[in-house]
Amino acid sequence: MVYTKNDIEQLDRITRLKLINSVTGIKPANLIGTISDKGDANLAIFSSIVHLGSNPALLGFISRPKTAEVGHTFRNIQENGFYTINHIQPEFVKNAHYTSVKFAEDISEFEQCKLSEEYINNFKAPFVKESTFKMGMRFKESVDIKLNDTMMVIGEIESIIFPDKALINGDIDLEYTNGVGISGLNSYYSLKKIANYPFAKINELPDFTT
What's the whole-model pTM score? Predict the structure, then answer.
């Protein structure tokens, strides 16, 4: 199968979305929890969250302001300054998927999709109680991407919450936390650890021929 640029442009919108959202491979599936200054909680699924740096500990995600649901997320982040990122587990992947529905602004995805708000240590945004791995984030800046009228929303990690047994020799075992991956618009995958290697150093290259 070969798709040229012209072929891609001729695809219908949904087919193109599924195709191009799949080409990077499996991505992390997360729920972003926010709350407005009126106290309306919001929850939305994202597959664009990326690591930007460890010192300071920064994560970014792509926001599309013209999409109603994502617009609620970014507007709440602007108003409140805080948000949460919650890994998705198989037990509630169906619930998480349907947070992508474009609910009205005053309708809570937590309530509609039967997920639980959780407020931890007075953090100013709701976590997903059902998630076994979650992070509290402080908004730092947004960077406009003019090519497609989106923005990179950048936040700093304020807290990380996950099971004690998931930390093994300094590494987080994502198979233990049972996180879910996503490809395209609606395909979900379980994660399985296949290997563990030491920190790569130039003077410790293995013999790849054996």
Answer: 0.91
